[in-house]
Amino acid sequence: MPTTRIKICGITTPETLDAVLAARAEYVGFNFFPLSPRHIGPDMAASLASRAGTEIAKVGVFVDPDDALLGAAISAGRLDAIQLHGEETPERSAAIRARFALPVWKVVPVSNAGDVARAALYREAADFILFDAKTPRDATLPGGMGLRFDWSLLSGLRLALPWGLAGGLSAENVAQAIASTGAGLVDTSSGVESAPGVKDADRIAAFCNAVRAA
After folding, report:
1. Distance CA 179, CA 182 (A)
2. Structural domain harbouring 99
3. What is the pTM of this model?
4. Nearest one of 128, 127, 108 to 118, comparing CA atoms
5. Is there a contact between 189 and 33 (Cβ–Cβ < 8 Å)?
6. For residue 155, what is the domain's CATH number?
């Protein structure tokens, strides 16, 4: 069986980055959305990127970003991929990929089967799809709230793009999530925190161990 890859998102400090590296996750997420409790600026992004080196792939998380923000964050964070977590259309996603010449991960919020089907719209506009739980209309954040959706919606999914799963994943449920969906990548943020935006090294290790044991 292929190994499910792991992304730990919303890292904000050197200490928690070290925990991610020690746990041998394949991806780390740097959040550039100003309203998020996990937001980092260019200086911290540069510091974390320097500390990470080439040991792990660095994914920048953005919500409807303009090109100026993307350019500054990509440079500071030495990003390996761009994750779009807003209302970006296929056209905007394709334009970002063309301009910055980096893989684009498009987040598709899910609450029903129709939402899952929307992923096909990005076949020519993204390199990877990340299915996440759809947040309430009045929510200030598009993700990272510990919400999950009905994983059976992804059962037997056939998609032209590789895809992964996010939304409410923790060490306690990630094995079930992998078994239910067959996701090739799992992404967690709040599931490895002791408080919003505060990562816990033990929870990071437990999550990665649970994925590898699944």
Report:
1. 6
2. 5-213
3. 0.93
4. 108
5. no
6. 3.20.20.70
pLDDT tens, the chain, 214 aa long? 568 999 999 999 999 999 999 999 999 999 999 999 999 999 999 999 999 999 999 999 999 999 999 999 999 999 999 999 999 999 999 999 999 999 999 999 999 999 999 999 999 999 999 999 987 665 555 555 567 899 999 988 989 999 999 999 999 999 999 999 999 999 999 999 999 899 999 999 999 999 999 8
Cα-based distances in Å from 179 to 15, 66, 129, 131, 150: 31, 37, 19, 16, 13
Among 145, 147, 214, 141, smallest CA distance to 184 is for: 214
Q: How far is CA 18 from the centre of its chain?
A: 18
Q: How far apart are CA 97 and CA 148, in angstroms?
A: 28
User: Cβ(4)–Cβ(178) under 8 Å?
Assistant: yes
Q: How many domains does the chain have?
A: 1
